[in-house]
Amino acid sequence: MSLFSSGRRASDRSVKKELDSIPSVSHNTQRVSRRKVTDYKDFPIVLESAEVVKVVGISPIQLNKFVERRSYGIAPSYRAGKGRGSRRRFREHDVYGVALVWWLFEAGLRKQTIQYVLNKICGHTKSAKASDAAKILSDKETEMLAVKREPRRAGDKREYPKQEVFLVDWSEANHLVESTVTASVLFIPIADRFEKLRDEMRRLSPLTEMHGRSE
Q: pLDDT tens digits, residue range 93-113?
């Protein structure tokens, strides 16, 4: 068990632009054979804001807040045009980052806790980006993301509860539940959600549609 404690059209040049390499996190979670969700070169995916809203389920207002405030490093890959009327374009890795943050937000986690989770996934990095954390989870074929939180007691002067972040498979998730007595544990089935999200993005992205017709 791995533990971390306390769009439309895009230019060919933009689509082929590779991501900068980011540090990986070492863990020994058992793996199952899965298709990775970040094969950008073979299936370039580019979505506009309205399409991101549709596939992720996030509200337009909340997506706009994340982007305008640069929360968790969330930003479009590029903009078509200039000024307030410019259209935002999100590539695949950006959408996974938005989705990861949205799932944590919808699970009831506050801003500081969401950033804590991203930091631990990225190797204790401060102000880690959501897209970087999502890429690590995908590259490691993580089945489940677990966040364990121990409630504070009387006299506890800590600002936040004791928290731990786990990358686990299903059997390890069951063991984590069985071994937990007083803490609360949040589980997010990352692999299944990423796979479903990727299928939805491929269905909406015009670039992947053209790729499919050319085969």
A: 999 999 999 999 999 999 999
Of the given ranges (15-24, 37-46, 171-180), which has the lowest mean pLDDT? 15-24
Q: Give the rounded distance of the alpha carbon of 108 from its chain centre.
A: 16
Domain total in the chain: 1
Let me know if 62 is exposed, middle or buried by CB neighbors in 10 A (0-12, 13-18, 19+): middle
33 — pLDDT class (breaks 50, 70, 90): very low
CATH of the domain at 127: 1.10.1660.10
Three-state DSSP class for 113?
helix
Helix 49-56 and helix 92-106, axial crossing angle in degrees, nearest 10? 50
Helices (H) and strands (E) counted in the chain, each on its own, are 9, 7
